Fold:
Amino acid sequence: MNDQKTFEYLQQFLTEERLEKISHFAPGSSDFVLPVMEDIFQFRNAAAIVRSVEACGFHKIVAMESENEFNPNLRVTKGAETWVEVEKLPHNLESLKEIKSRGYKIVAVSPENNATMLPDYQLNEPVALVFGTEKEGVTEEILHFADETLAIPMYGFTRSFNVSVAAAICFYELKQKLIKSNLDYQLSEEKLWQMKVRWALNSIKSGEQILDHYVKNIQCF
Structure:
């Protein structure tokens, strides 16, 4: 199925306002930074993370689940879940190995293991940014597996931020580094059309049924 042609078909079902928004924000989307969340259990944190990811134009999260389901509170996301793809994987090293095989450096957000401070971090290749659980932080197994660790400078008695706050700070800071760099950090054309199709489907009532009808029709020719 050709994603560009599929989007061109679906756009007739979009409002003019929604189509304009998709056309405006899609080119700035990036998967150069991939947020990876370890077994987040508080739905408000999950929602705040989704909202921050979308606001910074990354539009995808990997949620590694074991005991808890990554389940954002829709009242907190303010519609960000329409735009952010959540890929759910088991909470284990095999999932991180899979992510690494996609071309990502694994970077754990933790002050452990001689971490580089966020303002000093040199972003020169795609990174999967791993955030730990609310109570324990990044698990030991993942800390040892990670290629690097990254830390946010702290200036008070409190030694860490809430995970959703830490995530927002990292996403924003890394997005600024990308904007100021000469890196080609935008989505490939193939991924861009795939994302636009997903956005269109999430914007259309009965979008999946409309897509099924379209696919069946093109298969008849």
The first helix runs from residue 3 to 10. DSSP finds nine helices and seven strands in the chain. Residues 95 and 130 are 12 Å apart (CA to CA).
